[in-house]
Automatic annotation (TrEMBL):
Superkingdom of origin organism: Bacteria
Domain Dihydroxy-acid/6-phosphogluconate dehydratase N-terminal: 40-354
Gene3D superfamilies registered for this protein in UniProt: IlvD/EDD C-terminal domain-like
Residue span, Dihydroxy-acid/6-phosphogluconate dehydratase C-terminal domain: 364-562
Similarity field: Belongs to the IlvD/Edd family.
Protein name: L-arabinonate dehydratase
Keyword list, A-Z: Iron, Iron-sulfur, Lyase, Metal-binding
PANTHER family, alphabetized: HYPOTHETICAL DIHYDROXY-ACID DEHYDRATASE (EUROFUNG)-RELATED, HYPOTHETICAL DIHYDROXYACID DEHYDRATASE (EUROFUNG)-RELATED
InterPro entries: Dihydro-acid_dehy_C (IPR042096), DiOHA_6PGluconate_deHydtase_CS (IPR020558), ILV_EDD_C (IPR056740), ILV_EDD_N (IPR000581), IlvD/EDD_N (IPR037237), Sugar_Degrad_Dehydratases (IPR052352)
GO molecular function, one term: iron-sulfur cluster binding
Length: 580
């Protein structure tokens, strides 16, 4: 147990000298009496609130509840803002600023007199950004997410965030519904505050955080507008104060074992492919070795039992009522499919202690292992001469008949080329073709946008074709679906083999054996690569300077989690120098 004099904040507020005067005096301009912030755990509330991040726009109210909990438990709460990555508005993609946000979080925590932090995150990139930044400081931290939106309801049907956009837009292109009908779903899809209600990346990362043990149990699924969300925020505020005295730092939670639990959980929930990138980045910050092939070793063979869109039928609100993530984890644990039941979590109990009595109230939503949604839902890691450093496919969102497929490439040089030609009636493409999209990787886009789930050519949609094999160095939204090979590494912009694919090349996808190959000889492949690399232009954005040039020059490839090379690692929370 820590003593008052051991508190990190005592280095600021606890000294009888000029420095102590300066730190204390300016805090007092907020009307705070001495006893409120001296000798107590100072709890930072790291808030990604922003009205430009609609998914996180209710966070000041959540922060208020966290503060009540902190005060009740004898701490002193201080709320501070950090960069907020809103998925829906930010161009060229919120992924572009995930690392920027993580730097903001890391430096804000380290530089300030906080003994611990409550991380308020929700929209996709905010959760990994906050965990990455906090992990690099390694102080006690607990995450509270904002919760999902209520179920979308449109013309008598339940519709899911994002997923409905992809589906309805394909119907427009197939001539089945009008553009007016399409637009009329806008308001009915987003009915309340909160994050996407599908098992998109936000919900996935909330589940990842819960399975990693950095939230209180049940955090992931409680809807944003449910009173329980505020109760959980209050309880998290209370708990973080004890975590200070117990010195329960992130490194004690974010262990290799915790990441293995998360990988297994991702398969069971049909989680987003983005988790492969974000978990790697978080692991890198805390010093845990995590490889792409861990997803094969630990995740493959695990059934997807959660029947949520985009893979299945239901939404996060239904998931909450069915029992939430603890019910999924219990199902796994009862069948010995939870690799590390004894992993420690934020409430001081093991993961298994938290979930061993969790009930499943609806076996249509949280299915049984005997009746899964997908028999083997673990992310499929592919390697081969087209992806020497790997690529990712989400089986639960793919068409079984396309998981083993050989087809001729139809190549788009970049996303603009795709948009310009996809609707061309003369495009030489049929349902057996393999669509290949280049130049959408971390450096190339830049930011690795979620454009990998290219919509199908309208002339095929009109014929009732609903899926084709698509390959790119891009990501796709967690709300998207299809037989879509993503994160192909190395990417086009660094001269990966995807750069040399030509129209008409035969490509073979063999998911069962984790293989992705282009059917040309090694000599031909090398000759094409040499030619490509000799002609490859320098990205003009680098010369423009600013954050974009920093990003392009330092972002790592997808298999390394797309972190900046200079941000990997835990740098601790010590700051030996005072500011004056
Ligand atoms: Fe924010 Fe989906 S856009 S969670
Ligand atoms: Mg998303």
């Amino acid at each position: 147990m820590k003593k008052k004099t051991d508190l990190r904040s005592a280095q600021w507020f606890g000294t009888i000298d000029k420095n102590g005067f300066m730190y204390r005096s300016w805090m007092k301009n907020q009307g705070t009496p001495d006893h409120e912030f001296q000798g107590k755990p100072i709890i930072g509330i790291c808030n990604t609130w922003s009205e430009l991040t609609p998914c996180n726009a209710h966070f000041r109210r959540i922060a208020d509840r966290v503060k009540q909990g902190v005060l009740e438990a004898g701490g002193y709460p201080v709320e501070f803002p950090v960069f907020s990555n809103g998925e829906s508005n930010l161009r060229p993609t919120a992924m572009f600023t995930r690392n920027l946000a993580s730097m903001d979080v890391e430096e804000a925590i380290r530089g300030n007199p906080v003994d611990a932090v409550v991380l308020l995150a929700g929209c996709d990139k905010t959760t990994p950004a906050l965990l990455m930044g906090a992990a690099s400081c390694d102080i006690p931290a607990i995450l509270v997410t904002g919760g999902p939106m209520l179920n979308g309801k449109h013309k008598g049907k339940t519709i899911g965030s994002g997923t409905a956009v992809w589906q309805l837009h394909e119907e427009v292109k197939a001539g089945k519904i009008s553009i007016e009908e399409f637009l009329s779903a806008e308001r009915s899809m987003s009915r309340s505050e909160g994050t996407c209600n599908t098992m998109g990346t936000a919900s996935t990362m909330a589940c990842m955080a819960e399975s990693l043990g950095v939230t209180l149990p049940y955090n992931a699924a409680i809807p944003a507008v449910d009173a329980s969300r505020y109760t959980l925020a209050h309880l998290s505020g209370m708990r973080i104060v004890d975590m200070v005295w117990e010195d329960l730092r992130l490194s004690k939670l974010l262990t290799r074992e915790a990441f293995e639990n998360a990988i297994r959980t991702n398969a069971a929930i049909g989680g987003s492919t983005n988790a492969a990138i974000h978990l790697k980045a978080i692991a890198g910050r805390i010093g845990v070795d995590l490889e792409l092939d861990d997803w094969t070793r630990i995740g493959r063979g695990t059934p997807t039992i959660l029947d949520l869109m985009p893979s299945g039928r239901f939404l996060m609100e239904d998931f909450c009522y069915a029992g939430g993530l603890p019910a999924v984890l219990r199902t796994l644990g009862d069948a010995n499919l939870l690799p590390h039941k004894d992993a420690l979590t934020a409430n001081g109990k093991t993961l298994w202690e938290n979930v061993c009595n969790a009930d499943n109230y609806n076996t249509e939503v949280i299915r049984t292992l005997e009746n899964p949604l997908v028999d083997d839902g673990g992310l499929c890691i592919l390697r081969g001469n087209l992806a020497p450093r790997g690529a990712v496919l989400k089986p639960s969102a793919a068409s079984p008949h396309l998981m083993q497929h050989r087809g001729k490439a139809v190549v788009f040089e970049d996303f603009d080329d795709y948009k310009a030609r996809i609707a061309d009636p003369d495009l030489d493409v049929d349902e057996n073709s393999v669509m290949v999209l280049k130049n959408c990787g971390p450096r190339g886009y830049p930011g690795m946008a979620e454009v990998g789930n290219m919509g199908l050519p309208p002339k095929l949609l009109e014929r009732g074709i609903t899926d084709m094999v698509r390959i790119s160095d891009a990501r796709m939204s967690g709300t998207a679906y299809g037989t879509v090979v993503l994160h192909t590494a190395p990417e086009t912009a660094v001269g990966g083999p995807i750069a040399i694919v030509q129209n008409g090349d035969w490509i073979e996808l063999d998911s069962a054996n984790g293989a992705l190959n282009i059917d040309i000889s090694d000599e031909e492949l090398q000759a094409r690569l040499d030619k490509h690399n000799a002609e490859k232009p320098v990205n003009p954005l680098i010369a423009q300077g600013g954050y974009r040039s920093l990003y392009i020059e330092h972002v790592m490839q997808a298999d390394d989690g797309c972190d900046f090379d200079f941000l990997v690692g835990c740098r601790g929370s010590d700051v030996p120098r005072h500011s004056h």
